[in-house]
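Subgroup meeting minutes
Present: P.N., E.W., G.H.
Scribe: E.W.

1. P.N. recapped why we're keeping a running log of single-chain structure predictions: easier to compare across weeks, and new members can see raw inputs and outputs side by side.
2. G.H. added today's entry (292 aa).
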Amino acid sequence: MGRIRDLIGRLMFPRRAKFVENLTNALVRSVQEIERFDASVKDLCVTWLAIGPQYYFGELFLKSQDWNKPFLQAFSKSDMINAQGCFHLTQGYYLRHLKQLIKQDSKYKRFSSGLLDRDIQSHMAFGNEISRAAEEFETSINSMACPEDFSMCYVEKVLSMQYPNETKRRACLSALWLEPRALLGLAIFTTETLKRTKDVGNRHGTNEAEPAEIFNDRAKIEHNHVNANREIIERQNIHETIKPEKKEQPASMVRESKCPGCGKAWRLNAFLYSISPFKCPVCGTKYTVTKQ
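Output recorded in log:
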């Protein structure tokens, strides 16, 4: 049934299907590159430079929710090009936030920003692009004051890639700035998603399990948007509306998984379960990775 839906989706929305496929390929490639990172930052970077960016982009531009309809429509009307570039841009956005945490958060100071930079440059094919994007975000964000500007900085850069025509791009962005409910939703979504990414990343190097399902917990985020009618009250109480996550027992982060198509064995990080089915980079076979 899933294959039938996938086929229908490809026939009805070929541009979107191709974009999603390329976005997933960029994610898988990044995870494989991060596997060569120093052990002290490897799992941290899977969270901040792979799964976090993929989740953020997908929830904002690809999955229909009540609060993000203007963003979804803006993206669906665009050229839907350069999925790889969009992923690298999102990685740069997350890298900027990660570096800020390493500088400012006492729990993150155990990680080395210098080592992080060296691994990105040495092991990632597009490390220069990701680092440059992070620096550009840092420069842009430093000149902004309110959360809406902070989050829209990222949106504007993504849509600049998707709308080569300047007139259409300006019209699209002007329309988004006139959507106060969507702007509030974006601010809440960004705050909550980065907070969750921070919580997951902070568990690396400890005895706590890394809950991959934290990135699929859409219901709790949507609950905040449904109750966001009174903007000031909701923004102040947003953290109180979310129940604490249940802690899991420690589990292995890496498992062997053999492709049923070519027989190639892959060492897959547990976070890849969130993008199942996994696509074999060798033969292209898609298969479900099961927990053991």
